[in-house]
Amino acid sequence: MTTLKPGDSFPSDVVFSYIPYTEESGDITSCGIPVNYNASKEWADKKVVLFSVPGAFTPTCSVSHLPGYIKNLPQLKAKGVDVVAVLAFNDPFVMSAWGKANKITDDSILFLSDPDAKFSKSIGWADPASGRTGRYALVIDHGKVTYADIETERGSLKKSGAETVLASL
């Protein structure tokens, strides 16, 4: 269990669960089919912002954290970010519904599931009490971590919010 830090390589075996957005399953009550998303492979030659939340549809996550990234998406893209992804321990169906509830009708932000907080635990950033993913942010540039920080105050976005990550680019 090693915390990722700037200069580290992104692990080579990271696979999340994901439901790609499709128009035919675009309604919030429609379910798509979960697929494995091999982040290590997909992100090897891209600039990626990955932010993690304790849970979809929870207060800080829904009112502040995700909306900050939605609002700043054009600025992130202007800084060369290819992929913006949000991660939570929720299952892929909940993550897909959270994306639809926030009117993300494409893959401009990926809603990824970290079942059992496996990835977050592997980097030491899962909440020890609840077992959920922690609130953190990573920037991965062509396989190298260039920014990595976790919130230590409940409900804080000082280290993982969109504005902080944008300033780090």
UniProtKB/TrEMBL annotation:
GO CC, alphabetical: mitochondrion; peroxisome
InterPro entries: PRX5-like, Redoxin, Thioredoxin-like_sf, Thioredoxin_domain
Chain ranges of the Thioredoxin domain: 4-169
A Pfam family it matches: Redoxin
Gene3D superfamilies recorded: Glutaredoxin
Name by which UniProt lists this protein: Thioredoxin peroxidase
Statement: the UniProt record of this protein carries the keyword Oxidoreductase: yes
Highest rank taxon of the organism: Eukaryota
Active site: 61 (cysteine sulfenic acid (-soh) intermediate)
Keywords: Antioxidant, Oxidoreductase, Peroxidase, Redox-active center
Family note: Belongs to the peroxiredoxin family. Prx5 subfamily.
Its biological purpose: Thiol-specific peroxidase that catalyzes the reduction of hydrogen peroxide and organic hydroperoxides to water and alcohols, respectively. Plays a role in cell protection against oxidative stress by detoxifying peroxides.
GO biological process: cell redox homeostasis; cellular response to oxidative stress; hydrogen peroxide catabolic process
Gene Ontology MF: a single term: thioredoxin peroxidase activity
Organism taxonomic ancestry: Eukaryota, Fungi, Dikarya, Ascomycota, Pezizomycotina
